[in-house]
Write a structure and sequence with these properties.
272 residues, alpha/beta, Rossmann fold, 2 domains
Length: 272
């Protein structure tokens, strides 16, 4: 749904209207969400991913009952994790509208520190360009960018993926975080768009999804500066409908031919 909401119509109201539940039946957390939305930071449903995560993902993991919110059933939990059928369905419905998988909402966001290998390599630099290919919701690259900015590094973040509503969320996040953020769409005409030069390329859960992983690597390699880091996952993967290139032996061979230094096997590589 792409309708811009008026001042008096918040996304919290939309949630309840679509579920046929009066707002008065919602929990204090949902009413707090309504107030937050009215503050002007989040203007429509497409910008609500962090709050959805809090409402429907973290509460699941913490086994917090939502029976009185009007968003889940009042029946007993069907398993030990506290997940109810309505809650699961709501997550699936909302994620589908946003063009993501429900699991993507619950991917962990790393907490970086000066002891982390990648952060230690990049924190020494004055300015860093990060490219995240197949970014999804960019949990790792976003949090790394925030950490580097915190320690005084100027950061530019380029996010690359198939265009969907997540694009607007990520650009909104960049404005909110005050980090220069660009989104480059992958299209049928340009599966890998023209990339900027970068000091780090994040390409996790990417090569196994590409029909020509070696060709995709060549595009990345051409833009990764000497001494730059490639964060990836080039081990072989199990075949499934999404893993169109599960066997990545040819890619590993090509990376070795290019002389990349292995910092963490199959995961963290440095261009010489």
């Amino acid at each position: 749904m792409c309708t811009p909401w008026g001042t008096g119509f918040t996304s919290a109201q939309l949630i309840n209207q679509q579920l046929g539940v009066p707002l008065s039946a919602s929990s204090p957390l949902v009413r707090t969400l309504q107030i937050t939305l009215q503050s002007g930071y989040l203007k429509n449903l497409r910008m609500m991913l962090p709050l959805y995560k809090r409402l429907f993902s973290q509460t699941t993991r913490k086994n917090v009952a939502l029976r009185n919110t009007g968003l889940v059933t009042s029946a007993p939990d069907r398993n030990a994790s506290g997940v109810t059928c309505t809650q699961e369905l709501f997550n699936q419905w909302n994620a589908e509208r946003l063009g993501i998988s429900p699991e993507e909402l619950t991917y962990p966001e790393p907490r970086w520190s000066r002891t982390d290998l990648v952060a230690r390599q990049l924190a020494k630099r004055y300015e860093v360009s990060i490219v995240d290919v197949g970014c999804g919701l960019a949990q790792q690259s976003r949090t790394l960018a925030e950490y580097l900015r915190y320690v005084g590094v100027r950061v530019r973040l380029t996010l690359v993926d198939i265009p969907s509503l997540r694009q607007e969320f990520l650009l909104w996040w960049g404005r909110r975080a005050k980090i220069q953020t660009t989104f480059l769409p992958c299209t049928a005409e340009a599966p890998i768009p023209e990339l900027p030069e970068c000091d780090l390329c994040q390409a996790t859960e990417f090569f196994e999804l590409a029909h020509e992983p070696v060709a995709c690597f060549s595009r990345i390699d051409a833009k990764l500066v000497a001494g730059g880091l490639l964060i990836t996952g080039i081990m072989d993967h199990r075949p499934d409908s999404m893993h169109v290139s599960p066997q990545l032996g040819a890619l590993r061979k090509r990376i070795a031919e290019c002389g990349y230094e292995v910092l963490v096997r199959d995961r963290t590589l440095r261009k010489r």
